[in-house]
Amino acid sequence: MDRGKKTDVTQQPLGVAVVGAGYWGPNLVRNFQASDRFRLRHLCDLDVERARRVLGGYSTVQATADYPAVLADPEVDAVAVATPAGTHLDIALAALRAGKHVLVEKPLAATYADGMRLVTEAEERGLTLMCDHTYCYTPAVGRIREAVRSGELGEIHFVDSVRINLGLVQKDIDVLWDLAPHDLSILDFILPDTVEPVAVAAHGADPIGAGHACVAYLTLRLNTGAIAHVHVNWLSPTKVRTTMVGGAKRTLLWDDLNPLQRVAVYDRGVDLASPHEIGVDERRDMLVSYRSGDMVAPALGEKEALRSMVEEFADAVRERRAPLTDGRAGLRVLDILEAASRSLQFQGAVVGLRAGH
Amino acid sequence: MDRGKKTDVTQQPLGVAVVGAGYWGPNLVRNFQASDRFRLRHLCDLDVERARRVLGGYSTVQATADYPAVLADPEVDAVAVATPAGTHLDIALAALRAGKHVLVEKPLAATYADGMRLVTEAEERGLTLMCDHTYCYTPAVGRIREAVRSGELGEIHFVDSVRINLGLVQKDIDVLWDLAPHDLSILDFILPDTVEPVAVAAHGADPIGAGHACVAYLTLRLNTGAIAHVHVNWLSPTKVRTTMVGGAKRTLLWDDLNPLQRVAVYDRGVDLASPHEIGVDERRDMLVSYRSGDMVAPALGEKEALRSMVEEFADAVRERRAPLTDGRAGLRVLDILEAASRSLQFQGAVVGLRAGH
Amino acid sequence: MDRGKKTDVTQQPLGVAVVGAGYWGPNLVRNFQASDRFRLRHLCDLDVERARRVLGGYSTVQATADYPAVLADPEVDAVAVATPAGTHLDIALAALRAGKHVLVEKPLAATYADGMRLVTEAEERGLTLMCDHTYCYTPAVGRIREAVRSGELGEIHFVDSVRINLGLVQKDIDVLWDLAPHDLSILDFILPDTVEPVAVAAHGADPIGAGHACVAYLTLRLNTGAIAHVHVNWLSPTKVRTTMVGGAKRTLLWDDLNPLQRVAVYDRGVDLASPHEIGVDERRDMLVSYRSGDMVAPALGEKEALRSMVEEFADAVRERRAPLTDGRAGLRVLDILEAASRSLQFQGAVVGLRAGH
Amino acid sequence: MDRGKKTDVTQQPLGVAVVGAGYWGPNLVRNFQASDRFRLRHLCDLDVERARRVLGGYSTVQATADYPAVLADPEVDAVAVATPAGTHLDIALAALRAGKHVLVEKPLAATYADGMRLVTEAEERGLTLMCDHTYCYTPAVGRIREAVRSGELGEIHFVDSVRINLGLVQKDIDVLWDLAPHDLSILDFILPDTVEPVAVAAHGADPIGAGHACVAYLTLRLNTGAIAHVHVNWLSPTKVRTTMVGGAKRTLLWDDLNPLQRVAVYDRGVDLASPHEIGVDERRDMLVSYRSGDMVAPALGEKEALRSMVEEFADAVRERRAPLTDGRAGLRVLDILEAASRSLQFQGAVVGLRAGH
To answer: Which domain of life is it from (chains A, B, C, D) (predicted)?
Structure first.
């Protein structure tokens, strides 16, 4: 009986394998091990020595380079993919075809078309496909989503995101594909369902001759007339990670590098009086008033984002529902990234986005 | 004899009149009074009561609404114009035609064409025309100019400027014309003579219905391939005023709101190895190395920028030379502002700049 | 008729003279000139040239070295004393004896005994004696006083004040007498009437051989068992000006160098469960709980403290009432300073304070 | 052959057991596992379930409650003690008597006398006794030690340390014993060999009725006349961790919560002219000059302190030398803590320290 089976699943941890022992894989390994909803069975990497080093000398988890064997293991219910984006399609597709639920590191795939194949495959098989948009699971972003979607901030006027640092200059991807997925997945996560980007323009520079942009600015037009802007930069010697969300009622500032005050909600701003409140003759004067209110920095929990993310993965699998950051969220991010690349190619031309993912 | 006359001039303070008792005029009044190179004779405003209030109840300076009388006063050697930009042409032109040296608040004029008329008039008459680009006279910007032009930073890779605040929403001009002149005049001031912007793209939004952009992003392409970017915003509840100047050797960060550490020079960055240093087969690996060096925050003087600015005006008049921020500097800023407005109008289209001002 | 006279006084500005054209005098000159409640008549200094320089070349105010003539001027209703502390007694006493109201720069006098003579003289003559405890008139300190005295913070548990900077090493007074009057006058101002310091201990060091302490730490015991602590330091290359007021309900942090967020009220802290809530056997466990609440940074006005201070002086004179920072407030500060000096002399011994000023 | 044996030891990892699976033990477990100089064999805790939870479900390390069995294991060369201070004596003494090298969490023991027994026992047996003064192994403190001991800062004038936070109110120990060991061990570590504290005064308050001080101020007199001061506080809703080291030539500021600029060296300060440079008559004027120089924030490594600490433990054992933070360093800290407790008991009385540990 299905229901009995489902109950079983709920009570037993999900068997999981991590593929990729590079930069991100070890974080997944650590968090799957720390969660009682999972039983980590394999860490798979083409370089099995690297997998062994990640597991360390005291682990009972199996290191392996044999991915088909991992997929053949009936105790593996799910696969987490933390390999370079160019390999996501093959690895994730194989897992889905073996009947495994799949968690994929951002970006979902190397292209929108590839991402769409994964989404379709998962939907056809009734399997969970989740994109590891880690930031969406931080207490800060959860609070921002709530502030935006509850109306606490009022209608969104602008979003300004800065993510700059002396970053690892990547060989295969430019700074937009490396860093902007964070900002774009957060934007996708916090906006109300009725608000969405419709067009993109991007400007970049490659002053060090890396072969692609190391500094980039991305402007998004939303369907409401609001503007969103992202500044990503690998060459900044100081680290800045801020996002400002300006609303009609309040404005929120997230400073991820200020652990003592990550989120601040300002009850200050500019109001425009409604035209009907004033006579025709007064129209020529500026109908503006300024609020100078308090700032509130809400208390936020301390829970590690990756812990919440893997728990959401487990819950989505067990409850047979779409996870908060599902494959379609990953697709929407890919759509913007591809449009941004086209804009970069055409010197900042405005590029429209696909509708209705 | 001219020379004798000049000596005289050097020994006696310059007679000066300030026109405009609004937002900026009082600052000029205070600084002309504090400098022994000037003798302030008139404060002129259409609203003479406002001029009186600015002078206060203890002043011997004359408040007046009679501009022709001011121009007719032979003891007035120079006129400082601090009125709305739309009136600069008429007021400054009248002063030049009366043989007075002229200092004009930024922007130089309402249009490039107006500005050009002022520059031409002053040049034909051999009079000093100076633009009050105040920030250029701060110790911080002086230090930045030195760092850029001496080669201390190496070739300039990017400039990123943020000037956001809960600002006064203007009736007549958008946020670009209100705030970006600061950033553009600074950029013009610090760049080496051989480096200049060649094209501009601007994106803006008017989420409060003010009738023009309240949030704007400006991207400039320099003739070297470098990129400069300016973010100006009237709707931000927090104040940010930073400029980062990224160079091949070092990167400089100016934070104007951090009095304890306004300028920081980072000896950290990303280097690209020269192609000839490596073999063909290794090309595919990233030829990048990272420097992780010290940061130096240089000691800066405390001199008030406006004080230095009025002294430069006096010196330029006496030495019959172009001031550091002359009319042509003001013209170059107007050229960018007009191009930015056109770009805004065409949804971010790239607009080329005039050459050889 | 008294009442008629009072009405007259209310309508006309008070004639005032400033004595002392050194460091602080010019600030008083500026603020008396800017207030329509005063008419500044004289700036008096033994060095009349210095007084002239302070007034500048455009002023109608009279510079003078002739203090008796100032006191003889019937249009002078009040005298503001901004001379070194050692001269306060003579200058202020002469003014009081000439029937003038008196405002004195902090500290009130060089000794408690001198201060008491001034207080007594003023009280006997029914004249206003006010101490210029400027910080008490900042919007921040006003808000702190309100938070403490309204019970918003709960019972006060501790006060911690840091005022360090590369300061002017004084010839005649140590760092405690130079800087601590600020912190002590603020403490005096914000505490509820029933709470007061009862004893003092001070530790200092003179590492540069200045002849008196350049670094000092002051501990005050309050009658409630709470503790207050002040760190003053002339040798710190960075500037810190913070005061933390810890209460049973909330804790307030004032950072005077953070204009974007001067005051923050934290609704977080440690609570101790009441003993009667728990059984005897559980006593050995810690009865502590932690609150992790929001932080609120209240909107504060921007009014200049000195402006509010001179207005309070005018109001107190006109309303024939004690000003907020009257002579007795100055006396209480002197009492602590003298006790602190005695403690320094005896290597940190605890010294009791006088009761009932 | 001894030498052969030693070579063997160098090549093989040291067998180690951790005792205590509470707050700190898991950090030691993680770092011993990550270092190839150690082989972690046991995690011992009276509550064996707690030890199992710390190890997690994937570990090959043995959890045990049987300490005698751990000591009997010949493969255990060293024991790391991370239990409450009151148990350090018994646990560490048993380990030393079993011939094991010992690492002890701070403070070394509950009393100076207990600590001395451990030091004596270890010295008599030729075993390594090390105190886990973790902060001393941070790159920042290493840099401070270098700056102080190399003379870069000049003679030390003052040290000011602040360590405040909403901390866990402890049941058995006051805030001084909980937090000040960090500051005192750092002070002990950075001072030149010829400079040492000679006396202590402490002030504290227990405003929440915890049974011992929750806020405390500690003043130390050094043999050079310099002063050191430590502020520790469990009740502060904001976290501050700064140490300023003021020297005759330069002043260093360590802000442990500013990852972008942990250490800053200021070349600014106050100088006193030598008396012989000036004539007798000029003595009365202040012989002070001010330097206004640059600030340098040195690049620091990123190595985890605990990793460096366990490596120093391994090196000290293998090289048969005293570790950087040996038992005697722990003793010196205990001496100050006991003196501080006596001072607290006597209301801030100055208490002398033992000489020549």
So the answer is: Bacteria
Q: For residues B232 and B175, is the Cβ–Cβ distance under 8 A?
A: yes
The predicted-structure confidence for D194-251, as pLDDT tens digits, reads as follows 999 999 999 999 999 999 999 999 999 999 999 999 999 999 999 999 999 999 999 9
Q: Which residues of D37-71 are buried (b: 16+ CB within 10 A; e: fewer)?
A: bbbbbbbbbeeeebbbebbbebbebbbbeebeebb
Query: CA nearest A228: which of A171, A280, A187?
Result: A187
Q: Closest Cα partner for A36 from D63, D58, D34? A: D58
A343 touches chain B (CB under 8 A): no
Which chain B residues have a beta carbon less than 8 Å from that of C56?
33-34
Alpha-carbon torsion (C103, C108, C110, C116), positive or negative: positive
Among candidates D268, D295, D299 on the partner chain, residue whose Cβ is nearest the Cβ of B292: D299
Residue with tokens 């004033």: A278
Domains located in chain A, CATH noted: 2-135+306-324 (3.40.50.720), 138-301+335-352 (3.30.360.10)
Contact status, residue A160 vs residue B233, Cβ threshold 8 Å: yes
Cβ of B273 under 8 Å from any chain D Cβ? no
Interface of D with A in 206-245 (CB under 8 A): 238-239
- What b/e string do you get for B322-356 counting C-beta neighbours within 10 Å, with b at 16 or more? bbbbbbbbbbbbbbbbbbbbebbeeebbbbebeee
The first and second tokens of residue C276, run together, are: 């009667």
How far apart are alpha carbons D233 and C244 in whole angstroms? Answer: 12
Residues A243 and A183: beta-carbon distance below 8 Å: yes
CA-based nearest residue in chain A for residue D240: A260
B284 min Cα distance to partner chain C (Å): 48
- Comparing alpha-carbon positions, the chain B residue that sits nearest to C29 is B58
D298 interface with B at CB cutoff 8 Å: yes
- The interface pTM score, or ipTM, of the predicted complex is 0.92
**Do A250 and A183 contact (CB within 8 A), yes or no?**
no
Contacts of B309 (CB under 8 A, 6+ apart): B31, B132, B134, B136, B137
For residue D37, the chain A residues in CB contact (below 8 A) are none
CA B341 – CA D344 distance, rounded (Å)? 69
Nearest-neighbour CA in chain B from D266: distance (Å) = 9
CA nearest to D268 within chain B: B299
- Distance in Å, alpha carbon of C96 to nearest chain D alpha carbon: 32
Secondary structure of residue C216 in the 3-state scheme? strand
What subunits make at least 3 CB pairs under 8 angstroms with C? A, B, D
The 8-class DSSP code of residue D12 comes to S
pLDDT digits 0-9 by tens, D3-61: 333 444 456 999 999 999 999 999 999 999 999 999 999 999 999 999 999 999 999 99
Put simply, whether C26 touches D (Cβ < 8 Å) is no
The CA distance from B132 to B326, in Å, is 9
Determine the Cα–Cα distance for residues A117 and A112; give it in Å rounded to an integer. Answer: 9
- B141, with CB counted inside 10 A (0-12, 13-18, 19+), is buried
Q: Mutating which of A251, A295, A300, A303 best tests the C interface, going by the most C Cβ atoms within 10 A? A: A295
Q: How many CB atoms lie within 10 A of CB C352?
A: 12
Average pLDDT over residues B271-286: 54
**Cα separation of D302 and D138, whole Å?**
9
Q: How far is CA A174 from CA A96, B287, D265, in A?
A: 29, 15, 37
